[in-house]
């Protein structure tokens, strides 16, 4: 097959929109789509200081690479979760990726910081539950402590569609209210954005290969059997039969998102341990980890 734009051998077949592109024109298409997504949803402005959360995987690496190429002021944060060899590999990949990109990399190691890695805490909560809590808190606190205007994550179209499907099946309206490409900042909550929001996982893989970004391919040991993997498999099967299913599903959600918005806003307090937003006297993070004093992520520069 031949590239639709230049006639050279095709590098990829896009399912939606249906067309073949060579490697050069695919890279242009991908980067243009990221920029259009940023403009369409008003995610970022030039001059804003952006923190990209890099895991060592393809999505976050591509997010950092494209934002840097598009001229945004960005730095990277890697959270080493303390999950044995998996976390050591992930950190090594994050270091390689940031070296290629030429972006500053900050590393926070959960085990050094809190005494235990993910999966080592004696609790009834599943590891994925408190892992998510821990990552969200550290990302936000690091960004807040260091004056970042936004946190960019590598969530792609497949991630968003599977998140929505899972939460609709369980009618988790509180989570459905927080979907979308932009979670505005408020108070000590730093704005969160998803620049890959309209790009599929398959396209992200193709872009990473095209620009020479290596990434960890192993899944987290605690993610095996995760519901989101089942959701993705179902959506992929539907996408094969009816290209555009994922995009139409996500766009439909965006049109109806107001149906899930909370009528009464939850009044947040200030955590008496760390000073960050909390629904009670102590925030979920400090309560789970039993902290008695705040964590300080301020980077001493120069």
Descriptive account of the structure:
The chain is built from eleven helices and ten strands. It has one domain: Rossmann fold. The strands form three sheets. A six-stranded mixed β-sheet has the order 5-4-3-6-8-7, sandwiched between helices. The chain has helices at 23-40, 58-69, 84-101, 110-114, 127-145, 157-169, 173-176, 201-211, 227-241, 245-256, 284-289, and strands at 12-15, 18-21, 49-53, 73-80, 105-109, 150-152, 182-183, 191-193, 269-270, 277-278. It has 302 residues and is of the alpha/beta class. The model has no long low-confidence stretch (mean pLDDT 94). β7 (182-183) and β8 form a beta hairpin. One of its GO terms (cellular component) is cytosolic tRNA wobble base thiouridylase complex. Keywords: 4Fe-4S, ATP-binding, Iron, Iron-sulfur, Magnesium, Metal-binding, Nucleotide-binding, Transferase, Zinc. ATP binds at residues 53-55, 59, 79, 154, 159.
């Amino acid at each position: 097959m031949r590239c639709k734009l230049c006639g050279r051998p095709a590098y990829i077949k896009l399912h939606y929109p249906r067309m073949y592109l060579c490697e050069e024109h695919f890279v242009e298409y991908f980067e243009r789509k990221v920029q259009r997504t940023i403009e369409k949803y008003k995610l970022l402005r030039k001059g804003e200081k952006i923190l990209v959360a890099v895991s060592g995987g393809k999505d976050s690496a591509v997010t950092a690479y494209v934002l840097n190429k598009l001229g945004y002021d960005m730095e990277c944060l890697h959270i080493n979760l303390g999950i044995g060899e998996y976390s050591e590999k992930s950190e090594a990949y994050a270091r390689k990726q940031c070296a290629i990109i030429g972006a500053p990399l900050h590393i926070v190691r959960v085990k050094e910081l809190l005494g235990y890695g993910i999966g080592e805490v004696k609790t009834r909560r599943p590891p994925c539950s408190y892992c998510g809590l821990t990552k969200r808190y550290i990302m936000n606190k690091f960004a807040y402590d260091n004056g970042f205007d936004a946190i960019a994550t590598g969530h792609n179209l497949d991630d968003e569609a599977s998140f929505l499907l899972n939460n609709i099946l369980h009618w988790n309206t509180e989570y459905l209210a927080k979907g979308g490409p932009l979670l505005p900042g408020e108070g000590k909550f730093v704005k969160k954005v998803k620049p890959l929001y309209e790009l599929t996982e398959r396209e992200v893989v193709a872009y990473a290969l095209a620009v020479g970004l290596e990434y960890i391919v192993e899944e987290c040991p605690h993610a095996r059997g995760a519901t989101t993997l089942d959701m993705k498999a179902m959506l992929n099967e539907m996408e094969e039969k009816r290209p555009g299913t994922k995009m139409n599903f996500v766009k439909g959600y965006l049109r109806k998102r107001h149906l899930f918005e909370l009528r009464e806003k939850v009044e947040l307090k200030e955590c008496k341990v760390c000073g960050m937003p909390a629904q009670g006297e102590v925030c979920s993070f400090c309560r789970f980890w039993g902290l008695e004093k705040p964590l300080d992520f301020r980077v001493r520069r120069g």
